Amino acid sequence: MFRLQISVKHLAKEGETISAKTGQTLAGGKGANQAACGAKLLYPTYFVGPALGDECGVHLDYVRSVTDEQTGHAVVMLRGWPEKISDDELEVVRNAGVVLLQRDLPDSFNIQVAKDVKKVGVPVILDVGGMDTPIPNELLDSIDILSPNETELSRLTGMPTETFEQISQAVAKCHNLGVKQVIQSVIPASQVLDTTGAGDTFTAAFAVAMVEGKSHEECLRFATAAASLCVQVKGAIPSMPDQTSVMKLLESSI
């Protein structure tokens, strides 16, 4: 997946064409971020989903690459998704140690995956980031761990999340909604340059620690250390630390 970062004066309306001031194409998206982080932390990670192939077979031998200037981008926003994930893709996630879901895809996709892997005992973590629509109860009932940031937790529960006490009360409401566990990332860092990807790093690092058999407290410490390193570097995937860096930070804080 790629994240297209563009700067525009306003969001395009249906049927409208607007020009962007600047644009960058970067590897990204919540799922790609979390997959990259898991791999950097030395756990075998698989990114499951369809990718559009080249239907025309155009030869690109004479396409010239430039590195010192930006080229053009055309962004077309369409509605519509494939109807469901394939059986072959489901077979991959059935054999996973843990499955991370994000709300960048329709809830119907996530419900299908969560229900399927629940039958074989694979734990499911749902990152709340993505669509801001209410999460269906059918999805909440099918996951093991919910991972929101403060803003997402507030939106989900309708409660303030500005203090630790308020966060605790909001988490308690999530339990009342049927969620088994909630991990809410409050990340300490001495030098914050860019928070992009910090939540994805936290969730992915927690998942890696969990499948490695660490205790709940150890998972939280590992995830917090990884995310605190992430915010000290600009970018999303480039800022995600490797396992050596995380372990070094943990050892220095003992």
UniProtKB/TrEMBL annotation:
Annotated keywords: Kinase, Transferase
GO molecular function, one term: ribokinase activity
Matches recorded under Pfam families: PfkB (PF00294)
Example of a GO biological process term: D-ribose metabolic process
Claim: Transferase is one of the keywords in the record: yes
InterPro entries, per database record: Carboh/pur_kinase_PfkB_CS (IPR002173), PfkB_dom (IPR011611), Ribokinase (IPR011877), Ribokinase-like (IPR029056)
SUPFAM superfamilies in alphabetical order: Ribokinase-like
Keyword Kinase: yes
Domain Carbohydrate kinase PfkB: 11-183, 187-242
Top-level taxon of origin: Eukaryota
Family matches, as Gene3D superfamilies: 3.40.1190.20
PANTHER family linked to this entry: RIBOKINASE (PTHR10584:SF166), SUGAR KINASE (PTHR10584)
Name of protein: Carbohydrate kinase PfkB domain-containing protein
Organism of derivation: Brassica campestris (Field mustard)
